[in-house]
Write a structure and sequence with these properties.
7-stranded mixed β-sheet; Nucleotidyltransferase, domain 5; alpha/beta; 5-stranded mixed β-sheet; about 35% helix
Length: about 350
């Protein structure tokens, strides 16, 4: 066995495909899909088949024989909440991904992987989707029973970075208490208690720091009054939360790299907004000390914004009294999926059954 791993990660206008041998990527490509192409496949089944054929075409062009594959790893979609881990793609998972009202291209990934893997008699799996939910009971209580806190965050990258950091420290991820902040288009800050994310902000359209395109926590009363004012549609209100919130709402751009450059250069609106975002991120990090009961082995900064040294240095200066701060810039979802596939192949983990673990 060459430990050859196929990785599939669909986005709204692209499908990322890669093949790894062990921990080495041997081929990778982002297959771009134009709006004209996608408009011809309005039905979900049609678009799924379109994307699958693109993946198969890429593998053929690269000379990757399907029979050489040992496992297919897919990005997890918006299924029901589940604990962290690697999950076998089966009928239960495929049913929920097809029937979920939460539509996203990531929902196609498991079916594409399953259709490729099944004739080969190999496993198709997902790992740590955004719906990973390990919240403690007390963290789930929001303040009103009709609105319990939900767990939606960058689980795949956070878990991968947690394991990578533990390995570098000569420790096991399951033995450490970590605060991990994923800093990207969305921002999630989580308390990892010995391998379990027991508290995290709802990073999609809920709470936490504002980010380049999301508003994070907002004054709820003002939001309700605006929603019923008649001045905005539901779509416009949702865009205030996701897509046109945060940095974009203040500055008209989501280019955090450019904003950081301007912030460094001189006092400006850009600096004011960046300082406010750094303040909110740092405050969220500090709040995760409580779930971990003041026992923190490290603070990890990851995601695209973590490439900005000015930003990460300022966060360090605010929170390094809690624990040592380590920066792991970027996010590599393809490698994270591949490494989970490798853990299955080498026996380090056994895939769970989705139907036995959903809440």
């Amino acid at each position: 066995m060459n430990n050859r791993i196929l990785v599939i990660n669909p986005g709204s206008t692209s499908t990322k495909v890669a093949v790894f041998e062990g921990d080495i990527e041997i081929v990778e490509k982002t297959l771009r899909h134009s709006s004209d192409e996608l408009s011809a496949y309005q039905e979900e089944e049609a678009q799924l088949n379109f994307r699958k054929e693109k993946v198969l075409g890429f593998l053929k062009e690269e000379g990757i024989a399907l029979e050489s594959l040992d496992i297919a790893m897919a990005r997890g979609g918006l299924s029901k909440p589940i604990p962290s881990g690697v999950y076998l793609v089966d009928d239960n998972l495929l049913h929920d991904l097809k029937e979920t009202p939460k539509k996203h291209a990531s929902n196609f990934a498991a079916k594409i992987a399953f259709d490729i893997a099944s004739p080969l008699k190999i496993k198709a799996c997902i790992a740590d989707p955004v719906v990973v939910d390990e919240l403690s009971d007390i963290a789930r209580m929001s303040g009103h029973p009709k609105f319990p806190k939900s767990s939606v965050f960058h689980a795949l990258n956070q878990k991968a970075i947690g394991r990578e950091h533990a390995s570098r420290e000569g420790a096991n991820y399951e033995d450490l208490n970590l605060i991990i902040a994923h800093l990207g288009g969305g921002i999630s800050v989580a308390a990892h208690a010995k391998g379990q994310v027991i508290d995290v902000n709802q990073a999609l359209d809920g709470s936490g720091p504002f980010s380049p395109e999301r508003s994070g926590s907002l004054p709820v009363g003002d939001i309700i009054r605006a929603a019923f004012s008649g001045a905005y549609t539901q779509q416009q209100m949702m865009e205030m939360l996701v897509g046109k919130g945060g940095m974009f709402a203040y500055l008209g751009t989501i280019d955090a790299k450019k904003v950081e450059e301007l912030a460094i250069e001189k006092p400006s609106k850009e600096r004011e907004v960046m300082e406010a975002m750094i303040y909110q991120i740092s405050k969220e990090i500090a709040s995760m000390v409580i779930p971990l009961e003041n026992k923190v082995d490290g603070i990890l900064l990851t995601g695209g914004l973590a490439y900005g040294k000015w930003l990460t240095d300022k966060i360090k200066n605010k929170v390094d009294y809690i624990a040592s701060v380590h920066v792991y810039p970027g996010e590599d979802e393809m490698k994270a999926l591949a490494m989970n596939g490798l853990r299955v192949l080498n026996g380090a983990t056994t895939p769970k059954l989705y139907g036995e673990t959903i809440f």
